[in-house]
Amino acid sequence: MTRELTVSVDAMGGDAGPGVVVAALVRAIERHPEIHFLLHGDDVVLNPLLAAQPRLKGRITLRHAPERVTMEDKPSQIVRRGQNTSMWRAIESVKKGEAGVAVSAGNTGALMAMSLFQLRTIEGIARPAIASIWPTMRGRTVVLDVGANVSATAEQLVDFAVMGEAYAQVVFNMERPIIGLLNVGSEEQKGNDAVRAAAAILRSSKLPIAFHGFVEGNDITEGLVDVVVTDGFTGNIALKTAEGAAKLVSGYLRRALKRSLLGTIGAVFAAGALGTLKRNLDPRASAGGVFLGLNGIVVKAHGGTDEIGFSGALSLAVDLAHADLNARITADHRKLDGASQEQEQAALT
Amino acid sequence: MTRELTVSVDAMGGDAGPGVVVAALVRAIERHPEIHFLLHGDDVVLNPLLAAQPRLKGRITLRHAPERVTMEDKPSQIVRRGQNTSMWRAIESVKKGEAGVAVSAGNTGALMAMSLFQLRTIEGIARPAIASIWPTMRGRTVVLDVGANVSATAEQLVDFAVMGEAYAQVVFNMERPIIGLLNVGSEEQKGNDAVRAAAAILRSSKLPIAFHGFVEGNDITEGLVDVVVTDGFTGNIALKTAEGAAKLVSGYLRRALKRSLLGTIGAVFAAGALGTLKRNLDPRASAGGVFLGLNGIVVKAHGGTDEIGFSGALSLAVDLAHADLNARITADHRKLDGASQEQEQAALT
């Protein structure tokens, strides 16, 4: 894995600002000696930060962008008048073929709107999806869509299954990830029209997809399957509800330990173990979301990330570009189309 | 609160069986001296259990039901040929006016199908909803619908808001519960058509509802509002995902503590505190779901409940019947209709 690659980076996104991004670049460069970075942002801010890091010399090209996208910018507006922002320029480098992948910690809605506008979807795929990686009892699971769309047809859910499979193959280094479709029950007759129709397509398809069937909400963290497919409305709510529940349990625990002297003593003894717990649940450990289904890969780092989290997002971007994720998605999608046409022809003859 | 009341109970539902139900009745009778119980189930099984509890004498009427609903029974089939089951009979007692409320720990889908078939929805309300109570950082929150339906129109979401408000008034003993609508963002333009249209109705309505606006998944456990309204597909998945996430965090904690000697020592010292944590997350502590919007109240105890959980469900049933929950829902719904008509008339003149 020492092929040359250019990674385009939005230096101005996220809560922490360009200082965190530059620190993350220093870490990433140690890990990936083959990578060149194209950094987009305000050169008045960035020049002194880069000058203070001699190890970045020769590995980074700075491109000045006079404006930045804020967390308050509305996607529909910023996509029309945001051409001078560092976020727009970071995506533009992928569109122009200057970079193999783009990374930003900025406003998710704006990043999706700009990515969709500039890169467009892969031929045959109607809608992009945001894929996230969840910790589970058995390891990790890809969940998509967690918020690119507010609904999904059966055909779009099938597209998400194809994209999620390719993504899991790369990030989990696994040949045949098991796919599940999120529903309110595991029986065939359960759910709304879209999930039932999507399941019918996935079951009958000649696409070599390992389709488990329906999974329920609790099956995600059980790690029952490697990829959980759902619409962006349900997926976004499930993701945030899970984060809330995890926070609630951690909060209970802290309060419960503080309530008694023995608990307080116990907490001191257990501090190392509690630190392990915290690391396992650390949002930095997951690298944020990845936008799938576009003519170019865009990695969204967590908005509140630090340098460890952002360098994780950079590493993920490198892996996805090296593995040629989009070529896999396109190839798998063609197989799906072929299988559907064969089925239609078989039905006609 | 010493008005007479009859509570109809399905003795054969749930994983634990009639022994748990009878033990729960003993607990409930101590707490509610004004209650009479109508117990439906197999008298060969129940007679010896009741005979062993002299305190139940004179407080319980046993009605033999030769059959029972299993967890495997499909709602669509059992509703057609389940008239001899204890579950059917328990609901029938409410329909006939013999009992003010029914309680069962059995198959949720079958219980909903039978309740809907026998009791029908309240006039003007198209669909029933299942309401659940979640623990939060600040106390408790009602979430509905968590699984009666697989979709909801804007008008149905508004009905759920009215039903959820009345339910929260009773169980939280609160005059003006704050209502939130679950969505993928808090801004007005976010979400699908149904949630946006429902929000518009709730905002403009003259109904004295305290509508907060949109809430996100993590706001549920934050306790941002008292009632969270959503469709049954999203609500069911959110509920089960939250349960899964809570289990994952507890699991991490146990493993983290066991990993080191200090952690193990700490766990011994912290055992009391961890016990408190377990009680807070105990599914028995929440009494299961309540079916709202029907001509009669049906309380669904948790399928895996024990006698403490089932007696909690009985207490909840008593509270809801005493507070005349359905009269509140009907009155609030009329106000909503009145307000809509006034708005329409105002628009015409």
Secondary structure: helix percent of chain A: 40-55%
What is the fold-level CATH name, i.e. the topology of the largest domain in chain A?
Isopropylmalate Dehydrogenase
Tally of DSSP helical segments of chain A: 13
Strand order of the largest sheet of chain A: 3-2-1-4-11-10-5-6-9-7-8
Task: Please name the CATH architecture of the largest domain in chain A.
Answer: 3-Layer(aba) Sandwich
SSE order of chain A: EHEHEHHEHEEHEHEHEHHHEEHH
Based on Cα principal axes, name the global outline of chain A.
globular
CATH class of the largest domain in chain A: Alpha Beta
By CATH, the superfamily of the largest domain in chain A comes out as: Isopropylmalate Dehydrogenase
Description:
The structure is a homodimer of 349-residue chains. With 349 residues, chain A is of the alpha/beta class. Chain A folds into 2 domains: 1-124 and 293-323, 3-Layer(aba) Sandwich (Isopropylmalate Dehydrogenase); 126-289, Isopropylmalate Dehydrogenase, CATH 3.40.718.10. Chain A has helices at residues 18-31, 43-51, 75-81, 86-95, 108-119, 154-171, 193-204, 217-222, 232-258, 261-269, 271-281, 307-322, 325-348, and strands spanning 5-10, 35-41, 60-64, 101-104, 129-135, 140-144, 178-182, 210-215, 227-229, 289-292, 297-300. In chain A, α1 crosses α12 and α3 crosses α5 (108-119). The longest helix of chain A is centred in the C-terminal third of the chain and has 27 residues, at 232-258. The N and C termini of chain A lie far apart (48 Å). At the A-B interface, α8, α9, α10 and α11 of A face α8, α9, α10 and α11 of B.
